[in-house]
Amino acid sequence: MGNNLAPTMAIIYMNKLDEGILTTFDEPLYLKRYIDDMFVAWSTNDIDPTRLLKIANELNKSIEFTIELPKNNQLPFLDTMVTLNPDDGKFNTSLYIKPIHSQCVTPWDSHNPISQKRGLLIGETKRAISRSTNSSSRTKSLRLIKQLFRRNGYPKSFVQNNMEKATKTHHPTENDEKVIHLKVPFINEEYKRRTQAVIHRTGIDNIKIHYINGRRSARIFAPPKERQECPPNCITCSNAEKENCCLLKHCVYQITCMHCNAVYIGETGRTIGSRIKEHVNTQQTVHVHMTKHTSEPSFNDLKWKIIHTNLHNVRERRIIEAIEIKNTSSDTLMNGCVGRYLNI
Ligand SMILES: [Zn+2]
Ligand SMILES: [Zn+2]
């Protein structure tokens, strides 16, 4: 589901498949679907699950369905365990955690603010409550949450107190709307205490601080993205100072005329290769300059190099470009002016 549109497309497609599967059978009593997970109940025992699965799998050879049947009147669906009460024919639900679930939440000894761990516990407790239809299933759901957090090193009293807090319903008041939310990076508990003391001293009592973690550790350990290779015998790179750099973006570059050593300084947020191609092919400063030497300017009439990279901020990039222009002798400069006018 890497693409944002993928879930929507899957929903539309599965909706179409539903029709194909269900037209063969009587209308189900109950049908719920979440993307490609379906929960269907019929009021009859005449449905042959093997036949149902066979029909579903014949609709599209590249999609293989599996089927799960209830055991002891129970069937899990997503994070919910659905139990059929045979006496009144009603469904009861409680929280369900898959056996293959890693049983991991943010560990107690991880470098995260306690408020974040508390928030997680409260959120999970509320989710458990929302999945539960009666008091006994609620007790069951809450037990799962308790076990999950205890297994991840959360102290017993912390779990107990915060779960109790979460089970009490919160009624929003008028003051809730006036709260100012502030995001502050989390350094450690000591800094957190100090920032709170500063806020306290201001006497403003409707500020709520949310501590956020800076860099996610996953990002530190992730292998670097593979650098894109430019095509073999790349004509754009043929006269570059370094090979295989035409796909770089966000840089300040220098083009030198092979005939008279005149220099052009430029910046781009796009790939440098496409910008250099434009200089060669379109009626702009560099092209116009080259026509003094040759009727049809080509890559052979210039050499180019990148002087600064990783300049993602356009203002910063233009300042650096302007400085480079200023530092280049105006006798050899192709750029029309001595530096870009910056409205800082
Ligand atoms: Zn290249
Ligand atoms: Zn020249």
TrEMBL record:
Pfam family, one: HTH_animal
SUPFAM superfamilies: GIY-YIG endonuclease
Domain Reverse transcriptase, residue spans: 1-122
PANTHER family per record: REVERSE TRANSCRIPTASE, REVERSE TRANSCRIPTASE DOMAIN-CONTAINING PROTEIN
Protein known as: Reverse transcriptase domain-containing protein
Highest rank taxon of the organism: Eukaryota
Source organism of this protein record: Exaiptasia diaphana (Tropical sea anemone)
